[in-house]
């Protein structure tokens, strides 16, 4: 009786902690996003990677840009804020995505308690005129599993139109630049990963891919998993859509 | 009976609103400051102009700069964050103060509901090395009296060391620069205001100043009031201290 009770207690408490922590982190990030928009009139997109959805917080800058006018639509069923991307220079959006993917790879090499010191910053030119936005992005990891669960993108107008720079990963605590990149798209996925992604896109199953490439199905599945992790997407359909858009395949 | 009740009701509700609104605005700004520091590792100083005190929120950048190490001291009895100013280029701090004062004059000309669209941004060089901080500042007005009651200063590292610009007042909603200035100190206070401030500093009372300048005591008092408003300080002692530091007198 005692054991069952203590077991149950432990299970409940643990379950409770997991729930609380995740919920707390989401709520904290939502608050941070709201406060940023409140103060700086910018746009904040909080993406929940696990559930493939995003929360949109749009300040007055959205009116100026004529996007996110549907005020009721605070949530979208995607981690991609296409309505904003569509008014930006496609090359810059591409660089932004590559930078985010690199950042995703990088952050997993950083100890959990140091992760919040890093973010990326890049400049995004508007299609309609010569003005630009500044984009900052932060990743938030799950305290238990160390997975990256949330991504927070902040956008505001750039007031230094003369300054020209490519995106970078920075350490906000030390004020240092970790990585400044304008990466060849082709280097991000390996040749084999791209080959497999193309086959997935054409409708092939893992077994068929394994047969064509003379590799085991386990190897195919490991490649699939690596692709999802590298591209921080939740399924191969999304990976295909993004890779096509990024002209990787 | 009905009238007294409704009067009392109105009075109570109004009193209640005033308290709530002020308290709410302070709490909201404190939350914004906390969230900024939490996310960006920066330093946020929220100054309560009415009560001449400041709340300090210092992120990891403070450790890097070796300031605000006394973690218990979250409040200071001043609206000036001297511990930070002391490690910055004095010319930049001077320009920052002038910009803040100009911004203060400017914001009072803006309709209450539009005020939150404006902020100032400037660059502050560190004394110790070639790095710089970016400073953003926002004013918050009292909803009832339209006075500027709170000032929020945000500091973080600058990641674009090549860009060089003087401070400016910006409209964050439209992304436009309102005023870009490197103002002569001497233009801020009028010759007469400086003359009177010097006399106040030397210990003269309004009556004595009026006699020396052959003007009425009312005129002296109007000048005193204008000086306080222009410099956004609460008393002439502070005005003298600041004006001396800014080498205006």
Commentary on this structure:
Chains A, B: Residues 182-247 form the HTH luxR-type domain. Chains A, B: One of its GO terms (biological process) is regulation of DNA-templated transcription. Chains A, B: This is Helix-turn-helix transcriptional regulator. Chains A, B: Keywords: DNA-binding, Transcription, Transcription regulation. Chains A, B: It comes from Epilithonimonas arachidiradicis. The structure is a homodimer of 249-residue chains. Chain A has 249 residues and is an alpha+beta fold. Chain A has two domains: 2-180, PAS domain (Beta-Lactamase); 189-245, Winged helix-like DNA-binding domain superfamily/Winged helix DNA-binding domain (Arc Repressor Mutant, subunit A, Orthogonal Bundle). Chain A is built from eight helices and eight strands, in the order αββαβααβββββαααα. The first copy, chain A, has helices at 2-40, 60-65, 82-85, 90-107, 191-201, 206-213, 217-231, 236-245, and strands at 43-48, 53-58, 75-76, 118-125, 132-141, 148-157, 168-171, 176-180. An eight-stranded antiparallel beta sheet of chain A has the order 3-2-1-6-5-4-7-8, with helices on both faces. In chain A, a hairpin with a 4-residue loop joins strand 1 (43-48) and strand 2. In chain A, helix 6 crosses helix 7 (217-231). The longest helix of chain A is centred in the N-terminal third of the chain and has 39 residues, at 2-40. The radius of gyration of chain A is 20 Å and the shape is globular. Chain A starts with a helix and ends with a helix. The relative contact order of chain A is 0.11. The mean pLDDT of chain A is 84. Chains A and B meet through helix 1, helix 2 and strand 6 of A and helix 1, helix 2 and strand 6 of B.
């Amino acid at each position: 009786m005692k054991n069952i009770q203590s077991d149950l207690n432990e299970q409940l408490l643990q379950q409770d902690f997991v729930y609380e922590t995740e919920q707390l982190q989401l709520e904290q990030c939502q608050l941070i996003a709201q406060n940023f928009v409140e103060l700086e009139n910018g746009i904040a997109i909080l993406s929940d990677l696990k559930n493939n959805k995003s929360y949109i917080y749009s300040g007055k800058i959205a009116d100026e840009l004529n996007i996110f006018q549907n005020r009721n639509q605070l949530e979208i069923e995607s981690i991609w804020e296409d309505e904003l991307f569509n008014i930006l220079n496609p090359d810059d959006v591409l660089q932004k995505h590559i930078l985010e993917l690199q950042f995703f790879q990088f952050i997993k090499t950083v100890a959990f308690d140091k992760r919040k010191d890093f973010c990326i910053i890049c400049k995004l030119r508007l299609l309609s005129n010569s003005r630009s936005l500044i984009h900052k992005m932060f990743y938030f990891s799950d305290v238990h599993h160390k997975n990256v669960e949330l991504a927070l993108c902040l956008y505001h107008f750039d007031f230094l139109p003369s300054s020209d720079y490519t995106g970078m990963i920075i350490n906000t605590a030390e004020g240092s630049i970790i990585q400044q990149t304008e990466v060849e798209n082709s280097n991000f996925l390996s040749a084999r990963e791209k080959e497999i992604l193309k086959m997935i896109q054409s409708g092939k199953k893992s077994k068929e891919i394994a047969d064509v490439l003379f590799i085991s199905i386990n190897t195919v599945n490991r490649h699939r998993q690596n692709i999802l992790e590298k591209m921080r997407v939740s399924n191969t359909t999304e990976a295909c859509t993004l890779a096509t858009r990024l002209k990787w395949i």
